[in-house]
Automatic annotation (TrEMBL):
Keyword Glycosyltransferase: no
Domain of life: Eukaryota
Sorted UniProt keywords: Methyltransferase, S-adenosyl-L-methionine, Transferase
A Gene Ontology BP annotation from the UniProt entry: methylation
A Pfam family this chain is assigned to: Methyltransf_2
Compositional bias ranges of the Low complexity kind: 437-470
Lineage, top ranks: Eukaryota, Fungi, Dikarya, Ascomycota, Pezizomycotina
Residue ranges annotated for the O-methyltransferase C-terminal domain, each copy included: 251-400
GO molecular function, one term: O-methyltransferase activity
Protein's recorded name: O-methyltransferase C-terminal domain-containing protein
PROSITE patterns with a match to the protein in the record: SAM_OMT_II
Region entry Disordered, spans: 432-477
UniProt xrefs under InterPro entries: COMT-like, COMT_C, SAM-dependent_MTases_sf, WH-like_DNA-bd_sf, WH_DNA-bd_sf
Length: 477
């Protein structure tokens, strides 16, 4: 424990020394403290990570195993309190620079005094609000974020009111359908009484407020540390180098690309390449026109409606790119998406997946490991989908067709997302010589048969997703 405490001291001294040397405000619970760290040099960022991890370990040791487990399970009550604070908009009702009594706050909400007080006071144990004198509430730096950051409000709402109930029903779903591949038999459907009726996206498609909340929540997530598009676009940050394709005036297809913000960034950097952004009709219809102000960029990007559960219509492109797509699907669906490319692929075409790629346990820095493992379980709760390891991506491509030659996984430093790449070599596909698609279909029949994707399911998955994607795209503007 002392070793951990020393590690924390050393790392904290380094972090503070850096902040002071740069004249940056020090972290604090005060309402006017900064909500975020600025980008830090790698070694200082490492110190910050060390503090987080060592402090957690020290806390667990100080609790002792039995007490840590006993009370660890109660974290869902913290989620409940935060969800309630967010749901009733309490943070927006507390003045930023002064205080409010609980009695007055109560007059502004439908909550009765007892429930208001107990939920707020539980939230306080996690640094959300403070009570400078009995019955008087003031902001902390965290509650101020809840008051001012709309995407964060959506993030809390989506997590607390959609993912939390879905998670609570995962065991029920697993007991009933242990294979856990169907989009209509997840914890989400058990929570919201839609088992075998519709996938989550269809439910959201019927409820624009809920869809918008999810879209904004995604914007909050992907606007956070480690997910910036620049990690893919900027070669200087370890991004993918498309210089060869640019020189040849190649074509890049962003499948499920929303409103094309990745292509806009790429087209600004590469001035010869052409881009096609594919998404569902509804998303295409809601895209800004033109996609961006620079005509040289906008005129090289075509937005088109395409359902990736049908055959790829852009033949002979150089790259087919999937960002935050494949992790939304269990293997039978993901195999189907890859196979739908095959009739369009020319030899040497690259398939690039931009998703999390799980490393062996303990290989990740502990913060990222926790985020990714949690995300993996979120995918289970909502979609029976999953984050994948390198081996699982390799198997996914192999299940789709032998013609996909797996190239490996790369990841820019500081980024949580990986670039997973395969190249199409039709001569490697079983029954090559114009038979690639057929061979792939046979291959898939063998691998995906146990949990085949029905047309009905695929259709139900597809159409309404656009609604949920729109707000995300709006944020991306
Ligand atoms: C999680 S978002 C990812 C968007 C974008 N690639 C990104 O990186 O932010 C999933 C996207 O897939 C689109 N989508 C869902 N089902 C689809 C389908 N069957 N065909 C085409 N696009 C689909 C959604 O509309 C949405 O834009």
């Amino acid at each position: 424990m002392v070793a951990l405490a020393k590690k924390i001291t050393k790392a904290t001294e380094k972090l503070e020394a850096y902040m002071k040397s740069e004249n940056l405000p020090l972290p604090s619970f005060d309402a006017d403290a900064p909500a975020d760290y600025p980008p830090l040099p790698a070694d200082v960022q490492q110190s910050r990570q060390d503090i987080i991890h060592a402090a957690k370990e020290l806390s667990l040791l100080a609790h002792g195993p039995r007490e840590a487990v006993r009370w660890g399970i109660w974290e869902f009550l913290d989620v409940l309190a935060l969800t309630a604070v967010n749901h009733y908009g309490l943070a927006k009702l507390v003045p930023i620079d002064s205080t409010i009594t609980l009695a007055e706050l109560q007059t502004k909400t439908p909550l009765d005094p007892i429930n208001l007080a107990r939920l707020v006071r539980l939230a306080m144990t996690n640094g959300i609000f403070r009570e400078p004198s009995p019955g008087v509430i003031a902001h902390t730096s965290a509650s101020r974020v809840l008051a001012e950051d709309e995407n964060m409000q959506s993030w809390i709402g989506f997590n607390g009111e959609d993912i939390f109930p879905a998670s609570a029903h995962v065991l029920q779903a697993l007991k009933a359908y242990p294979e856990a591949t169907s989009l209509t038999r997840t914890g989400f459907q058990f929570a919201f009484d839609t088992v075998d009726k519709e996938p989550m996206f269809a439910t959201f498609g019927k409820d624009p407020d809920r869809a918008r909340r999810m879209g904004r929540a995604m914007a909050s997530l992907t606007g956070g540390e480690g997910y910036e598009p620049s990690y893919f676009v900027d070669v200087e940050k370890g991004g993918y180098d498309f210089s060869d394709l640019d020189a040849a005036g190649g074509t890049f297809v962003d499948v499920g690309g929303s409103h094309g913000f990745i292509c806009v960034d790429l087209a600004a950097r590469y001035r010869n390449m052409k881009f096609v952004v594919q998404d569902l009709q509804k998303t295409v219809d809601s895209a800004p026109k033109p996609l961006c102000a620079d005509p040289q960029v906008a005129e090289r990007i075509t937005l088109m409606a395409h359902d990736f559960f049908t055959e790829q219509p852009i033949k002979g492109a150089d790259v087919y790119y999937f960002r935050w797509i494949i992790h939304n699907y269990s293997t039978p669906y993901a195999v189907r998406i890859l196979q739908n490319l095959i009739p369009a692929l020319k030899p040497g075409a690259r398939i690039i997946i931009n998703d999390h790629c799980l490393r062996e346990p303990g290989q990740e820095n502990p913060w990222d490991e926790r985020v990714m493992r949690r995300m993996d379980v979120v995918m289970l709760a909502l979609l029976n989908a999953q984050e994948r390891t390198e081996a699982e991506f390799r198997e996914l491509f192999a299940a789709a067709s032998d013609g996909f030659v797996f190239k490996g996984v790369t990841r820019a430093k500081g980024c949580r997302m990986s670039v997973i790449e395969a190249v199409w070599q039709p001569d490697r596909a079983a029954g090559a010589g114009g038979q690639a698609a057929g061979a792939a279909a046979d291959n898939a029949a063998a691998t995906a048969a146990p949990a085949a994707v029905t047309e009905e399911e695929a259709a139900a998955t597809a159409a309404p997703v656009a609604a949920s994607a729109e707000p995300k795209s709006e944020e991306a503007k």
